[in-house]
Amino acid sequence: MVTLIKLTENDKRLIIVLLLVVILLFVIAGYVGLLVRNIMKYQSKRADDMLNDVVRAGVIRDEKKLFWFGIRKNYRVLFQQAWIPFLIMLGSSLILILYCATMNNWDVNIWDYKDEGFGTLFHVFDWANAPKAKFFGIDLICDWPSLLSTPHFSWNAWGAYLFVPGMFVGGIWFLICVQAYIARSFRIKKLSKQVFRKSLDDYNANDGPRSPINPE
Q1: Taking the C-alpha atoms of 190, 195, 201 and 202 in order, what is their torsion angle to the nearest 10 degrees?
Q2: Does a structural domain hold residue 20?
């Protein structure tokens, strides 16, 4: 309490802001984790469709054979889903190479905010020289930094305008495909063990035959 009394109003406000930021980060992390879990649970359901016919028809009667059959089908599904985002990323890379060759600039900075990068489309702040204040001996940013650049279009940045969105969309799409593949793989492994597992969990000896059966 004595320490808190000695704090200035700015210090107290800074502590409150830091606590709110920490709480917000924990909440966001929790929701992101829950979202990823639900997405993987939804994506894994396709594994049931992949294995349903061969199991019900009795084509496969072995745990290992069912597992590797599911993995092979899972590879095919991954290829079917991932070739489009892969082509998007490949096309974006070719566009950047074409841009460098056309502009005769092989040292391009795709994030440049002045003339040749994707950063020209955003507000850019001078965070390196942002105003700072001492807080328990630590320098913390206490105010917004000065503005270095405002959004503007630059013809010299057309390569970055096409490359960055293409890689972002293709990359996110590809990661979703990989996540779905992983989710299906876990489901395939689980199903291959459950389908042929013999269990006595629901067995009641009182429901069996009354007279003992003599083995021949």
Answers
A1: 140
A2: no
